[in-house]
Structure formats: C-alpha cells, structure tokens
Amino acid sequence: MTQAALSIDVAPDTLIADSVKASLFAKVTDDIAAYAIIDGQWCEDIYGRLLGEEHTNWCSLIAGELAQELALTAPYLVRLEQDSDLTNWLIEEGWGKGWGIYFLASKSKAKELYRTPPPESLKQQVERGAFVASPDISEDEATDVVLLRRHFRRYLRVEFESDGRLVRFRFFDPAVLRVWLLSTNPSETQAFFGPITDFIAEDWCEEPSLCNAQQLWHFAAPAAGEHCKTNRFNMGTRQLTPMTPITESSTQTNERPKSHITLIRKAQEKVFEDMQWELFIAKIAHDLLKAKALPQIGVTTFAGAQDFARDQVKEAIANGVETVGELNEYLKQTY
Question: How far does CA 116 lie from the centroid of its chain?
Fold first, then answer.
C-alpha cells in the first residue's frame, strides 16, 4: 500500500506514531535495545505511570537526597518494549509535546564501559532513599538501565567556559539535544554517545510556532574522529534532509584537561544563546501575527514576521531598551 493510500485510511497522528515506532525498533537486536529519557517536568504522569508498570525496567537519573523529593519531576530512563502499553502511550500521546528523547544502546558496550562498580552500591543507595527505580533492577549493578543511568548522569551538570558556572544540563529536552549534537566536536560527540548507537528526537521547542510533530531527527553514532550523522526526516512527505554540524563550534577543540564535569565551550554557549534568541524572536512574531498588527505593512507570513521582529528588536536595543518589559512597551508604542 502506498503512502498516499495510507493517508486516506489512517489518521495523521497514527501515521506519525507508527513512523516513530518503526524508526525506533527497526534496529533492535538481542544486544541493541530501545530506551527513552522522559522528563517529569513536561510529562507529569510519568512517575505514576511507571509505578504501575510490572514488567518495565526504569530508574530516575536523580540520585542522593533529592531522589525522593524530586520523584514527580525527575527525568526517567526507561527501557521500551515494542507495542507495549507504555511505549504506545509515550509515543502516541507524547510525541510533539517535548516529553523527552529516545535512543538505542548496546547492552554489551554499556557493560564494557561501566564494568567498574560505583563507589556506593545500589543496595546502599536504596537503603538511604537515594535511588528511585523499578524494584527488579535495584539489586543488579549490571542491569542495562542502571549502566546507562551512570553514563547519562555524567551530563546532568555542565560548566560554562566563559564564567565557570555549574548548571543543570537538560540534554533530554529535544531542542537542547539537537543543538548540543550539532555543536559538539568529534571527541565530545564520541564521549556523549558512549554505548548509544542512535538518538531519535522530535522537532520540538518551547515556542509552538516553531514545532513540527511530523519532523523526526535521527543522530547516528559517529566513527572515530568524525561527527555523528544527522538527518531530519519528514514523516508526512517522507523527505530525508541531511543536517550539517555548526561549523563555528563543532570544529573547535577543547583545550582543558579531561574532567568529570563536561565543559560547554564559549562557541557552544553562543549556539545555545542563538537558539534562545530565535525562540524569543519567534514568540514576538507569533504574537504580532495573532494581533493582526502586520498586514498594513505587507507582512503576512510567519517568516516575514520573524524578519520584521528581528529588525525591530535590534532597533529597540540600539535605542536603549534593556528588558523584556521595556521591549513590549516599545513595540506597543511603535505598532
């Protein structure tokens, strides 16, 4: 049956969900399994849902004294089974809402990379309430979910090169993951992938006007010394678009000695700042179009509204505007 025929008989949301699941489970083997990291801040039901799962391995990425306190809003690492109720719910209900990211990982490579036991055993962590997880994995240090948790916990905090600040790194946000993997150099990319073979993320960000639930981003593990291969796939048109790394950042080396804290280089900081800037511009453009404030000057498209908003914000800054409140007043007075 052709894609055109399918589109007549099947709802668009079903087509998207089926495409996501096909992309996620196509490469699953005895060694390669599918997983997700789901953010409790965006998916408010995830903790309660996981507590009701009897045959699913999962754990919180948060450790220590905050593990119990942040149980409702923590990021959760979950092993996914094809066509399970949990998998179907996450993809059918959550895709397009920024709930988290999906990935494939090699269980054998995870065991190889993290074969040295951690300083504190799982049993000790559980006894003091520092480990929130499904009951059946709490006594096995070599469970794949536990090993992957050790891998990803290395990235929960990062340091800004510009001022030394330590901040929480939300790499499990689809928008952050995209920018991060397009801005890393080969060495950083290799380290971040570790036992991961593929990442899959939606084309989501906090500005709804910039989101496209039909777009799927795929990042494949890189060969040594190379960037990961990145493609953006439109599940509606079936068009595959190769994406290139951000040159200014991805070609820059990290001169700092190896540390347990990941460094966000100055060039990467700028990439993330640019992302926030474009989100800000998009919100203004969306508000201007919604208020029907632009047709009189010949602007009727979202792209045109973005260009207009970008120019006006730059002009406002040049005129001494410093805060968002001042900017809103400036735009109201001007239009």
Answer: 28
At 64-88, the pLDDT tens digits run 889 999 999 999 999 999 999 999 9
Instruction: Give tens-digit pLDDT for 29-63.
Output: 999 999 999 999 999 999 999 999 988 999 999 99
Distance CA 253, CA 255 (A): 6
Where b means 16+ CB within 10 Å and e means fewer, 88-98 reads eebbeebbbeb
Question: What totals of helices (H) and strands (E) does the chain contain, helices first?
Answer: 14, 11
Look at residues 205, 155, 201 and name the one whose alpha carbon lies nearest to residue 175.
205
Tell me the pTM.
0.88
Residues with Cβ < 8 Å from 31, sequence gap 6 or more? Answer: 106, 107, 108
Q: Which residues make Cβ contacts (< 8 Å) with residue 334, sequence separation at least 6?
A: 312
Q: pLDDT value at position 119?
A: 82
Which of 203, 137, 146 shows the shortest CA–CA distance to 175?
203
In this predicted structure, what is the pLDDT of residue 139?
61
Among 85, 82, 95, residue whose Cα is nearest residue 38: 95
Concatenating the DSSP letter of every residue in 258-273 gives: P-SSEEE-HHHHHHHH
Per DSSP, the residues of 222-251 read PPTTSPPEEEEEETTTTEEEEE---HHHHT
